């Protein structure tokens, strides 16, 4: 008597397929560009950094220990000197960052090659310029 019957109205949302999923698709696109893609780029840079570690590099481990790489044992392990005479084996994946890169090993010239250049170094060359005989 006082209660009127409720009838279902026809929805004003005509479609039902694509329009229903449009907000979800937009949320996924936003998440991809704001979260997933930057994280993938950072992970790729970290993998490249780990692959480029060589002897002489100063590194920081995930535990905060700073040391110098003395030997690359294999693909997964490094020998790191953390103090004078104290060397520890560290997994390559546990390196957080590389503080300073060492210079690449210079190629030495074979004796007898080159245009008569001596292997004595820059000091000997300087002495030769000043009139001294060098060594």
Q: What's the arrangement of strands in the largest beta sheet?
A: 4-3-2-1-5
Based on helices, strands and strand pairing, what is the structural class? alpha+beta
Characterize the main sheet: 5 strands, antiparallel
CATH architecture of the domain at 54-100: Roll
Give the beta-strand count: 5
Beginning-to-end CA distance, first to last residue: 121 Å
Q: Using the coordinates above, name the CATH class of the domain at 54-100.
A: Mainly Beta
Kindly provide the radius of gyration, computed on alpha-carbon positions and rounded to a whole number of angstroms.
33 Å
How are helices and strands ordered from N to C?
HEEEEEH
- Unreliable parts: none
Percentage of residues in strands: 15-25%
**Counting H and I runs of at least 4 residues, what is the number of helices?**
2
- Provide the helix percentage: 25-40%
CATH fold node name of the domain at 54-100: SH3 type barrels
The chain-level mean pLDDT equals: 79
Backbone shape = elongated
Characterise this structure.
With 135 residues, this protein is of the alpha+beta class. It has 2 helices and 5 strands; from the N terminus they run αβββββα. A hairpin with a 4-residue loop joins β2 and β3. The longest helix is centred in the N-terminal third of the chain and has 34 residues.
């Amino acid at each position: 008597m006082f209660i009127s019957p409720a009838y279902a109205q026809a929805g004003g949302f005509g479609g039902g397929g694509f329009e229903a999923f449009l907000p979800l698709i937009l949320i996924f696109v936003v998440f991809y560009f704001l979260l997933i893609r930057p994280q993938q780029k950072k992970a790729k840079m970290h993998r490249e950094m780990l692959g480029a570690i060589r002897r002489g590099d100063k590194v920081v481990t995930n535990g905060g220990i700073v040391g110098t790489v003395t030997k690359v044992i294999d693909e997964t392990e490094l020998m790191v000197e953390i103090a004078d005479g104290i060397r520890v084996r560290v997994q390559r994946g546990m390196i957080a960052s590389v503080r300073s890169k060492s210079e690449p090993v210079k190629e030495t010239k074979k004796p007898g090659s080159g245009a008569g250049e001596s292997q004595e170094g820059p000091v000997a060359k300087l002495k030769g310029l000043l009139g001294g005989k060098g060594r």
